Amino acid sequence: MLTEKGVSPLIYGNFIELGLGRQIEGLWSEKLYNASFEEVVPLKRYMFDWLGKTPEDTLSHEKWWHSGYEVNDWYVHPSNEWVMPASNRYWNFHHGLQAAILQNDQPARRAFLAQDGVWINKSVKLLFRGYFSNGITADTRLQPVAVTIGLYPEKQFDNPLVERTITIPDGIYREFSVELDPGSYSGRTTFAISISPGTRVAADGFSLMPLNAMNGWRPEVIGALKRIHVPMIRFPGGCFASFYDWREGVGPRLDRQPVVSEYWGGIEENHAGTVEFIELCRLIESVPFLCVNMLTGTADRAADWVAYCNANAETRMGALRKQHGYPEPLGVLYWELDNETYRRFGWEEYARRCVEFSEAMKKVDPDIKLVMVGYWKFNDNLRDMLNIAGKYIDVITDRATSEADLNRDLDILREYNQQNGTAITLSNTEWLAPLDWSKSTIDALNFQKSPDQMTLQEHEISWNYAMNTARQLLLFQRLGGDFEFASFNNLANTWGQNIIECAKDTVFISAVGKVFELMSRSRLRWVLKTDTLKNLPGVIIQAGTSQIPNNKSQKTNSKSQKTNKLQTSNPKPQTSKPDTRNPKPDTLILYVLNYRSDTPEIRLDLSEMEIIPKLADVRSVNGAGPLSANTVGNQNQIFTSEEKIRIKNPGKPTFLVRPWSVTEITLIQN
Fold this sequence. Notes:
Blueprint lengths: L12 E3 L7 H5 L17 H7 L23 E2 L6 E4 L13 E5 L6 E10 L5 E8 L11 E9 L8 E7 L5 E7 L6 E9 L4 E11 L8 H10 L3 E4 L23 E2 L6 E2 L5 H11 L2 E5 L7 H12 L5 H8 L10 E3 L10 H18 L4 E5 L8 H8 L5 E3 L5 H18 L4 E7 L24 H5 L2 H16 L4 E6 L11 E3 L4 E3 L1 H9 L6 E3 L10 E7 L19 E4 L18 E8 L6 E5 L9 E9 L14 E9 L7 E3 L4 E8 L2
Parallel strand pairs: 1-12, 1-20, 12-15, 15-16, 16-17, 17-18, 18-19, 19-20
Antiparallel strand pairs: 2-5, 3-4, 4-11, 5-10, 6-9, 6-11, 7-8, 7-10, 13-14, 21-22, 23-24, 24-26, 25-27, 26-31, 27-30, 28-29, 28-31
C-alpha cells in the first residue's frame, strides 16, 4: 500500500463563487437580469486579467462563449419617444437603492419597459413577482394604474405570447404576482411591463421563475450534477467570500438586497444564499462547505452564521432560521477561515485571527471542522502557524498541485499531530490542473500562463486539459486519507473553467465534467504501487482496491509481498514488485490515461496477487484528439463508453484502451 489511510471520497469536490463568471446565474432559475434596476458596476480589471482580455475585446467570439454569459439591460421600446424612464438613485425605491419609474406622456401608444434574451420552454409556466406603486411613494390619493405584464417573441411587441394585467391602487409599494403560460412556444423572448398613455408606474424587485424550478435551481442543472456526482461543494468563494455578509443572503428572496461584486465587478443579486445552497447540496447529495469572511468580517458574525446553520430553533439565530422556513438545523460541518487571507494579514496575525474565530465559532458548535489557509506566502511558516493555531483548527488547505509540495505538508502535519495529539488533515480548497504537466507554472492564485497562442480558457475546455485533471485526481488519490478533500475550480460557467456549462437554453457536461463523472464514484480507497511503464511513454496507470487492509500499521516483509505487475504489449516490459498489503481483495480498480493517438494493449500479471477476477467493468471517456471540446454548438465531442467483459485469462488479463482516453477498469472476483 502507498498510504496508511484510505482515499477520501471528498477529493472529487467542487466550488461555487458568487459574483464571478455567471456561475449562480447559470445554475439558478431566475430569468431576469438586474431585476432590481440597480446601477451596475463595470467588470473590474481582475476579471479581464484572468481572461487575458480588455474591456474592449468582444468575448462573444470566444470558443467557450454561450448565452449564459449574456447580460441584457432594461430598455424602453423605441417606438414611443414620449416615454420618460428613470431610475433615480435613493429616490422612490423599494428594493436595493433605486427603482424603475416609467412615465408615458404619449397620447396614443403604450409604453414598454423591456428586457430581451429571456429563454422560455414550452408548456413550462412562469411565476412573475414584483413590487409596484403608481409613481409617487406613499401617496394614497392617486388614481389606480393598470400595468400589463407580458412575454413576446424577442422584440415582437405586437405579437404577445401571454399578457396579464394587474391594477396598482396607489403610491404605496405592494408585491404583485401573476402566472405566465407561454403555451407551446420555446425560444428567446422579451419580457416587458407596459402602461397606457398618460400614466406612470414605479417598479422594483422583480423575479421571473419557471414553476418547474427545484427549490429555485434549474432542473437540468440538478440532473447534470446528479450524473457527475459532486461529493462536496465550497461556497460562496473564492475572493467573493472575503467581502460577503451572509446576512444579505437569507430571508425572503424579494427582500434581499443586491450588492456589488466587490472584487470582480458586476452585480450579485443574492438570489441564492445559505439555505438555497444547502437545498442544492441536499438535492444532489453533496456535503456543504462554507467559507467565512475574515478579511472584512468579524468573529461574531462568523459565529452567528454557524448558529444560523447549526443551532437549535430555541436559540436567537436558530429562531431566525426557523422564521425563514427551516426549523431544523442545516448541519454544516466544514468551514474555511476565508480565502486568500495574505491579501491583508501576515502569517502570524492570520494564525492569531484563526484562534479568535475558532473560539467564537466552536463555542456555538464544537463539532465543526475549521480549515486554515496555509498556501503561498504562508507555506514557509506552516510550522509556526500550527504552533499558534494548531489546537484550534482541523484542516490545512494548500493550493499546491505538486506531489512533493503536498507530501511536505503532510509530513509537517503528521509531525505536529504526533507531538500534540491532534488529527489535522490536508486539503486543497481551490485547484486547477496544469496545462503542461512537465512544467507546471500554477501560482497560489491559481493562475498559469498559456504555453502557446491559445488562451487559458481555450486550454481549459479542451480534452487534453481534462486528461490533466484526471492525472491530478490520481495524484490526490496517492496522498491517501490524510488528504481529506479538494475543490475543483469551478462548478459552472466561469468562461469554460467548469464541470458543467449552463447556457440559457441548455445545460451540458464539459470535457472536465466527463472526467469527474467517470471518477467521482470511484471505489478505489487503497492505492497500490504499480509499474511505471517506462517502455510505454504517454500511458499512465494507477491501481488500487476498495478493500481495507487488516492492519494498516503493520510492517510488511518484502519476501512475502504479493505483487501487482502491469505489463504492455511492447517488448521487454519493465515491472516491479510493489507492496500491496491487501488481504484477499475481491475488487481491483485501475485507471489508465492514454495520451497517445494509438490503441495500446495493457497486460496485467495478477499471478502473485490473491485475486482471480472473472469479470471486468470497463468505463472510458475519450476525445477525438487533445483539442476536442464539448461546446454549445457541439455538446458531444467527448465520448463515453461502458462494457462488461468476461475475462478469459484471469491471471493475466489484457485490455485495449482507446486513443486519448481516461479509462476505469474494475476487476471483480465474484
